[in-house]
């Protein structure tokens, strides 16, 4: 195929001019280099912040980077060949494939396998190993996936939850990334011209094992692994996953338009707007990001016009120069939109539209505005143009870290069928990326995480329990098979991977945790208030979100997020009152004793199995900034919705009646993950921490001494001696 034909194919432009070829050829070759070169031969809380780059700067940067890579490639190739390290041990393993199925549960998996419904998982088990995989403490996705990629516990990688508190203000902050405006700006009239790049910082510590592989010349394709935003540089390609913000800087804010005022009461996850139909037309607007280019610029907005044709049963939607027809109960394709910030700068995004009803009332749902992968307003991949390459090759795709809109279903803005359709549309995009990565990476590492298993189970686990409080007023019978069908679909994915696996390929399937029912919420803040550890100002008995109305001068402890309890410590929190040393330890011991075995008097159930003193349980350098007490809930219980956002309510216990009915933020021993691998393993109780050293060992790469896990596949599987340091570590742990 000629260059001209290849460019026409990936761009879809039949009239590609020679001038366009001249400018895009370097970009094309860089994409091919990034994706194919074999140098050895990616749930609650605030947004990450947002500071967009201009389209012009993106184009300029992309072109300059492409030219640089193209012209410097021979020199860089020679330097790498001369100075790069080689693996310490010989191995005949050519490729390692890791498929992450977030939340896949070992008990459900075994049950469906025994019923003969998962033949490909059964085959993988017969060829090698199927076992439970120990998860992190706490068993929360960003924590667990960070341990998977780094081989260390949370006190070493600094991720304990989705959110934490700012010790200076007590306000919530995202644990994974810090995104902000440029540090210096040039004011010119009303405009604030940035003089540098926006502040973007990954807060996860330690390094992923694929970065170590890259130092030894081993190429990796990393697709949507959580806590990889902003993307890090390494020898390979990566598309960031969980915690990538939407265009508004949040973790997902949907838009809802309705002619029914009773449908506008939205608590969390989005914004609902009452609209009026005049002569068959609705005129409103779509809200975008803050305009930081203009002083006090406010939110950027786009006119949105909707023309209803009730006779045809359709509506014509006009936005950002796009015009398309849409029937009810059908998702639009990704619609590209652009907000004009000023000075010719546009901020690009994509979203899908879904009409719930045309009559008697009109009701429209719009997904959160995702960062456009073809013109990303923030770097969401490594190299920067990898997201562009995927979009040109495979079509546009969702980029939001938590793309499946669980809150839209929780709030009743969409129904179960719409949520499932959305989830599987996103899954199909991910599968295309994964299969493309397999094709383009014949040697090295391919890792892809699929979120569908987690999101669907969160929203439909109630259907496995006839007595679940969340079933009240909801359809159950229709959705009883949803989770079974989900696992069968994942089995088909494994079948496709097995077709591309030979005897020199190690194929592993893992999950970060399992699942259990979430029937009752526990509000730790309410418990702390009733026990006298937390005080409110002005005689209040309840508080708003984010610890509003808390009297910090009389508060010893509080909770925010899903992991546990913070002590209001002197010298750490700005208004801390608990002295370090004996007072602190006595307070922790007292609360641990009271909380362990906490009785839910209404049901007679034990809500909390164990409570860990973080500083005693962990030894890493970041334990000091973590929740001081990690709470291990019993099956059926979890931090309540109010507690997660720092609210004090009247009741300590409450029924969970939301669609989000299954969870894993409990005692980790209740929710281990799964491990399938087409080799026999040499360890009885494998853990997520073992995955990083296992992959390094498979490629014969020296394992860093700081890693907490040990290789699961030993010398009998590799044909060479296992790293002696890990033999010594294993013996030391046994002693």
What this model shows, in words?
- The protein has 20 helices and 35 strands.
- It has 735 residues and is α+β, with helices and mostly antiparallel strands.
- Among the domains are: 254-367, no CATH class; 518-663, no CATH class.
- The strands form ten sheets. An eight-stranded mixed β-sheet has the order 2-35-24-1-23-9-10-22, sandwiched between helices.
- 50% of the residues are buried.
Number of helices: 20
**Mind summarizing the main beta sheet?**
8 strands, mixed
Strand neighbour order, sheet with most strands: 2-35-24-1-23-9-10-22
State the end-to-end distance: 62 Å
Task: Write down the overall mean pLDDT.
Answer: 89
Write the layout of secondary structure elements.
Blueprint: H1 3-11, H2 18-36, H3 55-83, E1 95-101, H4 106-114, H5 119-127, E2 129-133, H6 141-150, H7 154-157, E3 163-165, E4 172-174, E5 177-180, E6 185-188, E7 191-194, E8 199-202, H8 209-215, E9 220-223, E10 236-239, E11 254-258, E12 270-274, E13 281-290, E14 299-309, E15 314-319, E16 322-326, E17 335-342, E18 345-351, E19 353-357, E20 363-366, E21 370-371, E22 381-382, H9 386-394, H10 406-410, H11 416-440, E23 444-450, H12 452-460, H13 482-499, E24 505-510, E25 516-522, H14 524-530, E26 557-559, E27 564-567, H15 582-595, E28 599-600, E29 605-606, E30 608-613, H16 614-617, E31 629-633, E32 636-639, H17 641-644, E33 653-655, E34 662-663, E35 673-677, H18 691-698, H19 715-718, H20 724-734
Parallel strand pairs: 1-23, 1-24, 9-10, 9-23, 11-12, 25-32
Antiparallel strand pairs: 2-35, 3-4, 5-8, 6-7, 10-22, 11-20, 13-14, 14-15, 15-16, 17-18, 18-21, 19-20, 24-35, 25-33, 25-34, 26-27, 27-31, 28-29, 30-31
């Amino acid at each position: 195929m000629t260059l001209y034909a290849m460019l026409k194919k990936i761009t879809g432009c039949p009239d590609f001019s020679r001038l366009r070829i001249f400018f895009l050829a370097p970009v094309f070759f860089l994409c091919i280099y990034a994706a194919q070169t074999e140098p050895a031969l990616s749930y609650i809380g605030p947004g990450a912040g947002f500071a967009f780059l201009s389209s012009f700067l993106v184009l300029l940067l992309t072109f300059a980077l492409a030219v640089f890579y193209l012209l410097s490639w021979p020199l860089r190739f020679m330097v790498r060949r001369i100075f790069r390290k080689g693996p310490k041990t010989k191995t005949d393993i050519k490729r390692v494939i890791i498929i992450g199925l977030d939340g896949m549960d070992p008990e459900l998996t075994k049950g469906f396998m025994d019923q003969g419904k998962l033949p490909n998982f059964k085959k993988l088990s017969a060829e090698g190993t199927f076992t439970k995989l120990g998860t992190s403490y706490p068993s929360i996705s960003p924590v667990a996936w960070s341990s998977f990629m780094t081989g260390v516990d949370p006190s070493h990688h600094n991720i304990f939850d989705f959110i934490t508190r700012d010790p200076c203000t007590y306000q919530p902050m995202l644990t994974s990334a810090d995104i902000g405006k440029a540090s210096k700006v040039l004011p010119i009239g009303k405009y604030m011209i940035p003089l540098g790049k926006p502040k973007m910082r990954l807060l996860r510590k330690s390094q992923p094992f694929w970065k170590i592989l890259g130092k030894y010349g081993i190429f990796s394709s990393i697709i949507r692994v959580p806590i990889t935003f902003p993307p890090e540089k390494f020898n390979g390609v990566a598309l960031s996953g969980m915690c990538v913000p939407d265009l508004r800087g949040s973790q997902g804010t949907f838009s809802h338009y309705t002619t029914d005022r009773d449908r506008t009461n939205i608590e969390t996850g989005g914004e609902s707007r009452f609209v009026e139909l005049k002569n068959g037309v609705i005129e409103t607007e779509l809200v975008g990001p803050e305009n930081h280019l203009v002083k006090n610029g406010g939110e950027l907005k786009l006119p949105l016009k909707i023309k209803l044709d009730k006779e045809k049963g359709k509506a014509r939607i006009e936005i950002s120069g796009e015009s398309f027809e849409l029937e009810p109960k059908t998702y639009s394709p990704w619609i590209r939109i652009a907000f004009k910030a000023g000075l010719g700068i546009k901020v690009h995004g994509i979203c899908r539209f879904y009409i719930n009803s045309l009559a008697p009332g009109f009701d429209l749902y719009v997904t959160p505005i995702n960062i456009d992968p073809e013109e990303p307003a923030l770097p969401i991949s490594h190299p920067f143009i990898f997201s562009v390459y995927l979009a040109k090759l495979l079509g546009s795709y969702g980029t939001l870290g938590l793309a499946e809109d669980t809150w839209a279903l929780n709030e009743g803005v969409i129904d179960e069928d719409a949520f499932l359709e959305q989830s599987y549309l996103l899954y199909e995009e991910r599968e295309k990326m994964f299969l493309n990565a397999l094709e383009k990476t014949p040697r090295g590492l391919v890792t892809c995480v699929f979120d569908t298993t987690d999101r669907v189970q969160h929203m439909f686990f109630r259907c496995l329990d006839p007595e679940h409080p969340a079933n009240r007023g909801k359809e159950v019978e229709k959705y009883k098979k949803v989770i079974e069908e989900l696992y069968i679909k994942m089995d088909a994915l494994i079948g496709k991977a097995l077709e591309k696996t030979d005897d020199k390929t190690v194929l592993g399937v893992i999950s970060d945790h399992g699942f259990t029912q979430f029937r009752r919420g526990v509000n730790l803040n309410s418990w702390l208030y009733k026990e006298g550890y937390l005080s409110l100002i002005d005689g209040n008995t309840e508080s708003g979100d984010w610890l509003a109305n808390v009297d910090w001068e009389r508060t010893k402890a509080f909770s925010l997020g899903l992991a546990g309890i913070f002590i209001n410590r002197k010298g750490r929190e700005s208004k801390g009152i608990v002295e370090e040393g004996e007072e602190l330890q006595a307070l922790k011991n007292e609360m641990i004793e009271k909380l362990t075995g906490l009785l839910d008097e209404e049901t007679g159930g034990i809500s909390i199995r164990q409570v860990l003193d973080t500083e005693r349980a962990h030894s890493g350098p970041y334990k000091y900034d973590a929740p001081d007490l990690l709470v291990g809930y019993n099956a059926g219980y979890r931090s309540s919705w109010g507690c997660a956002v720092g609210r004090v309510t009247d009741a300590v216990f409450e029924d969970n009646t939301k669609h989000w009915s299954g969870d894993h933020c409990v005692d980790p021993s209740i929710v281990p993950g799964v491990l399938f691998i087409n080799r026999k393993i040499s360890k009885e109780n494998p853990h997520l921490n073992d995955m990083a050293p296992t992959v390094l060992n498979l490629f014969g790469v020296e394992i860093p001494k700081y890693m907490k896990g040990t290789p699961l596949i030993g010398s009998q599987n590799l044909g060479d001696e296992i790293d002696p340091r890990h033999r010594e570590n294993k013996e030391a742990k046994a002693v």
